[in-house]
Write a structure and sequence with these properties.
Helix content is about 45%, strand content about 20%. By secondary structure, it is of the alpha+beta class. The protein folds into two domains: about 100 residues; about 130 residues, no CATH class. The longest helix has about 80 residues. It starts with a helix and ends with a strand.
Length: about 270
């Protein structure tokens, strides 16, 4: 074998060696990429499904706790009548959170009205609050035929059972209620109050006054009028408000009839009346 053939053979062997090295490196690269992708997908799987698995585990623990409490309640019920009453009261309290009928006090009726958000203390009312209700009524005038506006506090210390469909205070606060133009408020009213409320809705507008939690006093209040405002300003501030008279009412007072006394002459003769 001459020198030229030896050089060609050396080149061929070197090329084969370089090819083997390249193949080996390519194989290592592919395996590395496969391992990285496998690890990446595994991490994504863990992040995606571990939270769901944890949530299901928490739900299962809650269900186990509920069943344990139920077993304890059943055990207490089996031991004593007092335990049965306590369990029943607890069940009613739980049901009352989601039942409007059970939240309605005895002797009252749930009555729903639509009221402007601004008139409902700016929408800042919650189920369980107590309010006074002002009615702005269109009072017909029998003399002029026109309607006169009258404002007065009609109901006091009235409980709000629900705001919209919420039987409890909303978690997001008052934002949605304040943004709403009107609110559906459900009150606890007596049957008589419910009838009057329906009448006032048709003949006027309603407005609410929010009470403090411990304020339960019922006051005797006059109907708001120009005369009442003038008396209040004069009493509280010493300011005299002149109210012009719009009409005068004249009543004829009947006089008592008097027995008419007619003149008469009596003649006596011999001590006897003739």
């Amino acid at each position: 074998m001459n020198l030229e053939n030896k050089k060609q053979l050396a080149i061929i062997l070197m090329a084969i060696a370089l090819g083997l090295v390249a193949a080996l490196l390519a194989t290592n690269y592919v395996q590395t990429r496969i391992q990285e992708e496998t690890r990446k997908q595994s991490e994504e799987f863990k992040q995606k499904y571990m939270a769901k698995i944890q949530q299901d585990m928490d739900s299962l623990r809650g269900e186990i706790t509920r069943l344990e409490e139920q077993q304890k309640t059943m055990a207490i019920t089996a031991v004593s009548p007092a335990g049965a009453q306590e369990a029943e009261a607890k069940m009613r309290r739980e049901q009352s959170k989601s039942s409007l009928a059970l939240r309605t006090p005895a002797g009252r009726r749930a009555y729903t009205v639509m009221i402007d958000s601004l008139s409902a203390v700016g929408g800042m009312v919650n189920p369980g609050d107590f309010v006074d209700i002002i009615a702005h009524l269109d009072l017909p005038d029998s003399m002029t035929g026109k309607k006169e506006k009258v404002s007065t506090v009609v109901f006091q210390n009235i409980q709000i059972l629900a705001v919209g469909t919420n039987l409890q205070a909303p978690n997001e606060g008052y934002q949605k209620q304040q943004q709403a133009r009107s609110l559906k408020l459900t009150f606890a009213l007596t049957p008589e109050e419910a009838g009057l409320m329906s009448f006032m809705e048709r003949h006027g507008k309603l407005e609410l006054l929010l009470r403090a939690p411990d304020e339960t006093e019922i006051e005797v209040l006059d109907t708001a009028s120009w005369t009442g405002l003038a008396d209040y300003m004069f009493e509280k501030q010493g300011t005299e408000l002149i109210i012009p008279k719009t009409r005068a009412v004249i009543e004829t007072i009947p006089t008592q009839e008097r027995d008419e006394v007619k003149p008469f002459i009596q003649i006596f003769q011999g001590g006897q009346l003739q």
